Protein: DUF423 domain-containing protein
Organism: Paenibacillus gyeongsangnamensis
Amino acid sequence: MNRTFITIGAICGFLSVALGAFGAHMLKSILTPELLADYQTGVQYQMMHSLGLIGIGLASGHLKGSVHLRRAGWSMLAGIVLFSGSLYILSLTGVKMLGAITPFGGVAFLFGWLSFALAMKQPSK
């Protein structure tokens, strides 16, 4: 078990709930429906990938030292920062240029899930 990824996943999950509540209660009357939807997308993807990080941490107990699992975990964290982070900042500032960062986070998520799948194909130790 990799406690680092489990801890990071739990912290990101906590932040996802806090940011979701903030958006629902504080931003609903401030943001346009389009910007609020972007914000909520960031929250949803952060939560999904927080759970992915916890799963990676738990899986690492069966695949000790897996390079693919480490790549998967760090890629998912990068995706949370780039994808969700850019959507949060875009929503709060209205600066549309920040949307150019979001796809890099999406690619990090894809790489993370692919790496997770590759790790699962390895024999357990």
Q: What stands out?
A: Residues 46 and 80 are 6 Å apart (CA to CA).
